[in-house]
Amino acid sequence: MAFFDTIKLEKGMYGNGSKSFTDILEELDPSENYKGSELDGLDAFQRQLKRYDIKVGGSRSDCVQKFFQSSDSAALFPEYVSRAVRQGIERSDILSDIIAAKTVIDGLDYRSVVSAPDDDEKQLKPVAEGAYLPQTTIKTGGQLVKLQKRGRMLVASYEAVKFQKLDLFTVTLRQIGAHIAREQLKDAVDVLINGDGNSAAADTVSVDTSGNITYSDLIKLWAEVSPYELNTLLAPTDAMKKLLSMSEMKDAQAGLNFHGSGRMITPLGANLLHVPSISGTKIVGLDKNCALEMVQSGDVITDYDKLIDRQLERASISCITGFAKLFPDSVKVLTY
Q1: In the chain, which end has fewer C-beta atoms inside a 10 angstrom radius, N or C?
Q2: What pLDDT, on a 0 to 100 scale, did the predictor assign at position 298?
Q3: pLDDT at position 92, please?
Q4: Which residues contact 248 (CB under 8 A, 6 or more apart)?
Q5: Considering the domain boundaries, does residue 6 fall inside one?
Q6: Is residue 107 part of a domain?
Q7: Cα–Cα distance list, 130 to 22, 121, 133, 177, 218 (Å)
Q8: 154 and 256 housed in the same domain
Q9: What is the value of pTM for the model shown?
């Protein structure tokens, strides 16, 4: 069994199917071996940072060049980049509030399940003795889930990277992660509204309010989503302004919560999320527990190389995701 300070690190530890660089390190150097020691609480990658005395945060963070003091420590750099980007994705994450399930795959082809029960199938009626039980059909989708690759190529001169503090470099990487998260959210909302190829577009709930939104409109949306639970509302900026201006949003509890935490309480108790990418005068209402599946091919992928002749450092960062609609009737679109 290897210890953290004797492991040979190499670039071949990346790209091993569903296993990440940290997963492979954990197999070679399990964290459970360090319980009760001064290294307790660190994962295998963090122990490698400690091994090479690389400080990635704080006022005394090292420069990027510290990763390249040896060939072994250089192998840690892509994982550092991936982690920083993932932090940016998680900090800007709204997807976890609207997806019912997340599926991670190794390839690029995936078919989700399709189940569209009618009103009669949603009712569990009494069954006479000896009679057949009613059936609910679940099948694979006729079309593959469309996967989108999102990413950026970081290009920097040797001088810029050499003297760049890791603490500041991490901020840049987190912003890339935030941009990826926003684009993923845009893809997810597009599937909710327009379907994924296996399911049709969401039904529209039209109201005649001359461009305004009333409490009665939200009640109508709630009724249309039934028998599913209306627990999430997605609204663009204009709709958010109108919702926040409703008299029902101005009571003491709602105002105190919004001023203190930035989280908004809707009259129906649904989670209200700001999605600027929604176009037109639309509000999407859904049951987040059964509306959407997120499909991701692998994890955040980072490839790094150096162009010697031009003295440039390059790192490509990408993430491949797609979305599938699970129960189409659990999503409705309010147009005003």
Answers
A1: N
A2: 82
A3: 87
A4: 215, 254, 267
A5: no
A6: no
A7: 55, 20, 9, 57, 45
A8: no
A9: 0.82
**Amino acid, res. 332:** K
- Which helix (DSSP H) or strand (DSSP E) does residue 40 occupy? none
Long-range contacts of 65-69 (CB under 8 A, 24+ apart): 65/161, 65/162, 65/163, 66/166
Instruction: Retrieve residue 2's tokens.
Output: 């290897």
Considering the domain architecture, whether residues 283 and 222 belong to the same structural domain is answered as yes
Helix, strand or coil, per DSSP, at residue 94? coil
pLDDT (tens digit, 9 = 90+) per residue, 54-94?
A: 999 888 899 988 988 888 898 998 899 999 999 999 998 89
Whether residue 242 is contained in a domain is answered as yes
User: Do residues 221 and 272 both lie within one domain?
Assistant: yes
Query: For 5-49, what is each residue's pLDDT tens digit?
Result: 889 998 888 877 667 889 999 999 999 999 988 889 899 999 999
Domain contains 18: yes
Taking residue 325's Cβ as centre, other Cβ atoms within 10 Å add up to 28
Please count the structural domains in the chain. 2
Within 10 A of 133 (CB to CB), how many other CB atoms are there? 7
